[in-house]
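Late entry, pyridoxal-5'-phosphate complex.
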Amino acid sequence: MTDRITHLIHHPYQPPAGFEAPQPGVFKASTVFFPTVAAMRSREWKDKSAYTYGLHGTPTSYALEERLATLEGGKECLLVPSGLAALGLVALSLLKSGDEVLLPDNAYGPNKSIVEGELMGWGITHQYYNPMDPEDLEAQISSRTKLVWLEAAGSVSLEFPNIVEMVRICQRRKVLTALDNTWGAGLAFNPFDLVPGASSPVAVDVSAHALTKYPSGGGDVLMGSVITRNPGLHLKLKLTHMRFGIGVGMNDVEAVLRSLPTIGLRYRAHDVATRSLAAWAQTQPEFVQVLHPALPESPGHSHWMALTGGEEGKAAGLFSVMLDSRFTQAQTDAFCDALKLFKLGYSWGGPISLVVPYELESMRTIWPEHLLRGTLVRFSIGLEDLADLQADIAQALEVLR
Ligand SMILES: *Cc1c(COP(=O)(O)O)cnc(C)c1O
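Prediction complete; structure with ligand written out below:
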């Protein structure tokens, strides 16, 4: 080696091994080197025994995968570029032409778009079940049903289903279950052990999580995870993940690794503030219904209590209100526009409080009987001072008075 540039590119310096610091290092790669052709040929990419290509992981992504699997009570984890990609990966991997998938009618909207806009064209049919009626779910299971999606609490309307009963039904009928675990985040309950101490475990098969929300906690990263306990199921998902090349960037992985240690503190703080604001919202005459699983009047409260025990730190940072039906959508929009600290924006889990008015009618196949008629507004509570947030909602309510 005579050329200085070649020397630069193939520089022999190796920093000493054994560096330790609070955060794992950020290892970025497409190419990964092998010492010999034999090693290249024989190296295993289906597990974490070594490294083969950046798409299949580096020490950085392995660390996040292991930590997330621990958080959610699972064994294996795959990282994907968004929460929605996690939902998509589950469908891509587990459903084939001729199969049917069941979703709760309050499923995360874009998951409904996957089944309606993509899967239908591939000969995969779907049905929506009433999330508050396990019998309705059971009645819709047929020999073609290969996957049942669960969500607790439900998107936007936040009713809490009896997922224990629904998982038991699916286990009995030998249908795979996938939970969108973004709301629970691995903190409200353990999806792989829903009834601790049960003689046979009540467990979902797959937990999909939008890390974009609480694990990131900053409103600045998109990422998702797919967690399982069953090695065969993990391998099936991993093969699909590899074939389609659904990888993540290590700078984003680092951002999630950095936030993850504080997820418990943040989730609890969001929960405490949200419960308090939701209880106060119940005293405001313009709000005819307040939806939050910890409120005794909220649909499915008893299921949430039975599953979580109801303690602080088990209920995330979302609540929705139904504005009296005498208010038009335009008035509801004006109320949202009048909020100052609450920003208009999708997603949640970050430090800034957010608000979105939803036209629920267009999002459900039927208007849920447990919801009063009106216009719905969803709040996501950030980490601001509680009194400031309450004052902001109070001043915005003036536009309705
Ligand atoms: C946000 C969210 C997703 C999607 O996450 P993205 O990272 O925004 O794609 C999926 N499910 C639920 C319940 C969510 O709230």
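The chain has two domains: 37-261, 262-400. Will revisit in the morning.
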